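User:
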Amino acid sequence: MWHANPTWGSPRIVAELHKLEIEVAKSTVEKYKPKGERFPSATWRTFLDQHLQELVAIDFFIVQTARIKVLFVFLALAHDRRRIVHFNVTQHPTAQWTAQQIVEAFPFDTAPRYLLRDGDGIYGARVQRRIVSLGIHEVVTAPASPWQTPTWSE
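Assistant: Predicted structure:
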């Protein structure tokens, strides 16, 4: 049973055996637990797979114009179909402007359950308050983790 269900603990196995009318003590179950094996934990990929329908990622990228101006593009991307939910462009992004973009991206109770973002300073207290006010849970990617970049996933 340990091998077939590596994430189960001994109380769960005792309960499952009890359903089969097999009475066994927790200590007995633990006695037969394989030694030295590490069981897999939930990973970033697992999180993405389980919550794909309720994930939206936001990020900025820059574009240089022919006249050597730098434009900042705000992008909100739904992960389920890699669909662009919202985008906008500005020369001078601020926390207030970013907070407004989040409101415009999710009008009329269309906010996702989870919002993936990086740890950029543009997402300050004002933006975080706006996200919370929409009932969205923030998931901030770890620093220097390209596999967790919000606008990219395998």
